[in-house]
Amino acid sequence: MNTYFVEKAKMTLAGVSIRTTNEVEMGPDGGLPQLWETYFQSNIAGQVATVNSEYIYALYTDYKSDASGAYTVVIGHEVAEERHLEGNQLEENELEESELVESELEENELEKSELEESELEENELEENELEKNQLEESQFTYAVVPESKYMVFTTKKGPVFEVVAQAWGEIWAYFKQSREARTYTGDFEIYDSRNFDPADTQVEIYIAIE
């Protein structure tokens, strides 16, 4: 495989995820094929503010130890971190507005009947429950990939699952005796959806190193 070195800034990804191991994925109960199906059905790019949405990331992160231990796989897109933070700030502002409304209602309760107060409380509970359900339905896994140096491996062209599996086998063998040391802070594959052909594709695999 062709390789090169590159440094990349910190980024945040949003996607669907599973916790797994290499041993599990080599057997009949591997979850990655189903995770890819979940990704394609999720329409992540249409629900969150993405950066360069044409690029699909398959991130390997939160390693328990090394390549032999458990890790989390997140399939999704890069998101604008500041926009994600703005979203949290919006939720805080909405809470502040809700508290202000409740305060005003309490100040005016002498002017309202007990029946009206009861109806308002019921409406608020129903609205809060609806908002909670909507948030749960749209929730994805967010993962921060720290700034790092990477050794990038380029697969040969061919059926995607075949060439990627072969590449990972060569990567594991390479690092058993290489001068470079893996950091396990987050490794990822990048797929360009603009020219992605599952039967004949080429993938870059980024391995974080010291």
Give an overview in words.
This protein has 210 residues and is of the alpha+beta class. The chain contains five helices and eight strands. An eight-stranded antiparallel β-sheet has the order 1-6-8-7-3-4-2-5. The chain is elongated, with a radius of gyration of 23 Å. About 10% of the residues have low confidence.
Question: Would you kindly provide a brief summary of this structure?
Answer:
Helix content is 39%, strand content 27%. It is of the alpha+beta class and 210 residues long.
Radius of gyration: 23 Å
Mass-distribution shape: elongated
Number of helices: 5
User: What ranges have pLDDT less than 50 throughout 5 or more consecutive residues?
Assistant: 82-96, 132-137
The secondary structure category is: alpha+beta
Helix content: 25-40%
What order do the strands of the largest sheet run in, or round the barrel if closed? 1-6-8-7-3-4-2-5
- What is the end-to-end distance? 21 Å
Largest sheet: 8 strands, antiparallel
**How much beta, percentage-wise?**
25-35%
Mean pLDDT across all residues, rounded? Answer: 83
The H-and-E topology, N to C, reads as EEHHEEHHEEHEE
Write down how many β-strands occur, each being a DSSP E stretch of 2 or more residues. Answer: 8
Features:
210 residues, alpha+beta
Please render the helix and strand layout as text:
Elements lengths: L1 E7 L2 E10 L1 H4 L6 H11 L12 E7 L9 E9 L1 H27 L6 H24 L3 E5 L2 E7 L5 H16 L11 E6 L11 E6 L1
Antiparallel strand pairs: 1-6, 2-4, 2-5, 3-4, 3-7, 6-8, 7-8
